[in-house]
Specification:
alpha+beta, Nuclear Transport Factor 2, Chain: A, 3 helices, about 35% strand, globular
Length: about 120
């Protein structure tokens, strides 16, 4: 496993733990300072504080668990790219659990990650 793949795996694990612990700051910790996050159907979040607030909204609406499956991870010339699919497990307002599926791209590596 390359250094890039290890860093991507560590970022994924930190992000998943943030969701499971309802810790938006931990979710945001995998992004670099100038990162942007573009969640499906939601406004883009630019910068760490906006990304943290975006993850807090996801947690507040009931996201309590997730899974991420890496489909492609490559590094070239010090830049990395990862493409994958995710599943959010959402329990809105204490109701019945629902699943939301989507795809994500990240650029993890020495400079952090963006999605």
């Amino acid at each position: 496993m390359s250094q890039f793949e290890r860093e991507a795996e560590q970022a994924e694990e930190a992000w998943l733990q943030g969701i499971r612990r309802a810790d938006a700051a931990l979710c945001a910790s995998v992004y670099e300072d100038g990162a942007r996050s573009c969640p499906a159907g939601r406004p883009m979040a630019a910068g760490l504080e906006a990304i943290r607030a975006s993850w807090q909204r996801e947690i507040d609406r009931g996201v309590r668990d997730a899974a991420y499956d890496t489909l492609l991870a490559e590094e070239q010339g010090g830049l990395g790219f990862e493409l994958g699919t995710y599943v959010f497990r959402v329990t809105p307002g204490g109701g019945e659990q629902q699943e939301e599926r989507g795809s994500a791209r990240r650029r993890p590596g020495c400079s952090g990650a963006t999605s």
